[in-house]
Design brief:
It contains 1 helix and 4 strands. It has one domain. By secondary structure, it is mainly beta. The chain has a 4-stranded antiparallel sheet with strand order 2-1-3-4, covered by helices on one side.
Length: 93
C-alpha cells in the first residue's frame, strides 16, 4: 500500500440531546433524540452538550466522537466525552 492509498479515519464530534417522550399505549415513556449537532472539535461538542443540558426542556445530553472509515463508510462505536442528565443506556444507543 502506498501513501496515496492510505486514508485516515474521519472523526465526527457530536452533541446529541434528548427529551422525554410521552407514554404510549403500553404505558412506557422514555427518551427520544431532540437534536444531533456535529462539531469540528471535541471541546465544541462538549461545551454545547453542557449548555443544552441546562435547558428546561432537555432531559439529557451526550457529547461523543465516532470514527468513520472513508473507504467503506463504516462508523465505529461512539466514545463518550460527557453524558449529562437522563440519557439512554449505551446498549440502547
Amino acid at each position: 500500500m502506498t501513501n496515496s492509498e492510505r486514508t485516515t479515519d474521519k472523526i465526527h464530534y457530536i452533541c446529541q440531546t434528548y427529551v422525554e417522550k410521552e407514554a404510549g399505549r403500553d404505558g412506557q415513556g422514555g427518551l427520544k433524540i431532540a437534536k444531533q449537532l456535529e462539531y469540528s472539535t471535541a471541546s465544541e461538542a462538549q461545551n454545547r452538550a453542557e449548555r443544552e443540558a441546562l435547558s428546561e426542556d432537555c432531559a439529557g445530553a451526550d457529547a461523543y466522537m465516532v470514527s468513520e472509515d472513508p473507504n467503506s463508510g463504516e462508523v465505529g462505536e461512539p466514545r463518550f466525552l460527557i453524558r449529562l442528565g437522563n440519557v439512554p443506556e449505551f446498549d440502547d444507543f
